[in-house]
């Protein structure tokens, strides 16, 4: 089955940051510092080079393994990583830090051994361009050579106000995806103001509602971490992901979504019984799902995200004590969009036609691949071939996409 056929059979912005009361600044600590980076996140390395990646380098080794890392907006281009093994302890690491989908000699990371720390820009997709924020990541190759661990170096530093008192705070990117609002992203708050960080009493994983001491608070933050606030909880409702199509539910292994409130705050939700959220209005900002293969092969992984500055954002209200059943795949549709405005189109002149697979809430597909949970792209490279044909069936053009 082709990629789009499989998906259709089974399935039938980063918001502008508000001006924070206290500025959050990024700190890149030295190696060995207690806050150098959060715990490692493991990624499987696979033997297959991604189909849309070109290699323009003479490798020293005889065996190479590959991984891809998305570090930034859900729709940003993934970073290709290549491990070139010349010997048991002789390894070269190549990282496509400029995201041009080419591996070149300049992409080799300096240093020997099995651990590296290197600059990698945080890619923020905007309306017609991608902006990069300077950051660093650490990479470590496991003993077997099949697992590459990654961690986002450094932390955001600022202050938060809780119950009328201001405390120093730090935020780390626990899952190395460039966002600070995931369920694995820690928030550290110096609640006793002693200048030390107690991992048992002063560390919290990001959630829409947190219990601090005897009280519960609404946590508001944008994914980029430019602001963070705590407000007393006054009312809650429940949001559940409820996929309506039976064929999809039968093959649904995992589903995760990120909701964005009117104020830009993020809430994470999965396919469980639901999540308690503060009353308000929310839109779908990102969606990932894993589908089992009816033929028994590797699982299918898909990701959707908002298009930057999309004016047609759909919000869903959550009232006090109410339950919102949200079908994130409702209205899935494949359309062809022409970039050139009607006034610029002329007979005989080329036009750019973009296929867009979107959900009813306006989320656009940005990746699709097969494989394991830790590294879906490692087991099987998956691409889609799209053809543009005239009414009489004549193929005018075609292109291959890896949804990178």
Number of helices: 3
Return the domain count. Answer: 2
Proportion of β residues?
Answer: 35-45%
Mean pLDDT: 87
Measure the end-to-end span.
Answer: 20 Å
Oligomer: single chain
Q: Quickly give the structural class.
A: mainly beta
Overall, the morphology is globular
The Rg value, from CA coordinates, equals 22 Å
Q: Please outline the major beta sheet.
A: 6 strands, antiparallel
Question: If you had to describe this structure to a student in words, what would you say it looks like?
Answer:
- The protein is globular.
- It has 404 residues and is mainly beta.
- It has 2 domains: 1-25 and 157-331, no CATH class; 37-152, no CATH class.
- It is 5% helix and 45% strand.
- The strands form 10 sheets. Strands 21, 22, 24, 25, 26 and 30 form a 6-stranded antiparallel β-sheet that branches. It has a 5-stranded antiparallel β-sheet with strand order 1-13-14-15-16, with no helix packed on it. The chain has a 4-stranded antiparallel β-sheet with strand order 2-12-11-8, with no helix packed on it.
- The chain is built from 3 helices and 32 strands.
- It has helices at residues 3-11, 246-251, 376-379, and strands at residues 25-27, 41-44, 54-56, 63-69, 79-87, 90-95, 102-104, 115-119, 122-125, 130-133, 136-141, 147-152, 155-162, 165-171, 186-189, 203-205, 209-212, 215-221, 228-232, 236-241, 252-261, 266-270, 275-278, 280-291, 300-305, 316-318, 323-326, 333-338, 353-358, 364-370, 384-389, 395-401.
- Residues 1-18 form the signal peptide.
